[in-house]
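Reply to dn_fold:

You asked what the input looked like. This is it:
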Amino acid sequence: MRNVILLHGVGDSPDSFWLPYIRAALQKRGYDVWSPQLPDHMNPNLVVQLPFVLQNGVFTSETIIIAHSAGCPLTLAVLENIPVRIKQTILVAGFFKPIGQLEFVKAITKEYYDWKKIKNNVEQFIAINSDNDPWGCTDEQGKVMASQAGGTLIVPHGEGHMGSNTHNQPYTDFPLLLKLIE
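and this is what came back:
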């Protein structure tokens, strides 16, 4: 089964930014797309969100996970806990360690990631991090994630958070993502 899991960031929804664009385009390509409203989305934490995704998501060798912002450390935790190697993971404006003074970040990140498990559980790992993300989800975070997971880092210059209401970045489409998926 060819399926895609789309995970949004803090305070967002499945209808935020480029997520509806990606969902519609992939459904047209024949993918089954699961784009849930994550529980506790205003104060994301692994204790609630990780079991939700593991219990409700479908993970096969054809699964693709695409995540934005706070959905990215959640995706890393998912990759540590699934019993199958999935096809692809794309993390957009992702981070794996605390950024700034945002309180929720402590609850959605971990002190230690099992990068070996993460690497073994995904065939292709891609991090997309701008060089000027206003939240601190910069290419430096992406570089570490891609390196540890044996993946690729793409740095779109001057693209900020690639979706942010606070920083007036509507980012309603994202053609690059579609190019990265087959």
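The radius of gyration is 15 Å.
Hope that clears it up.
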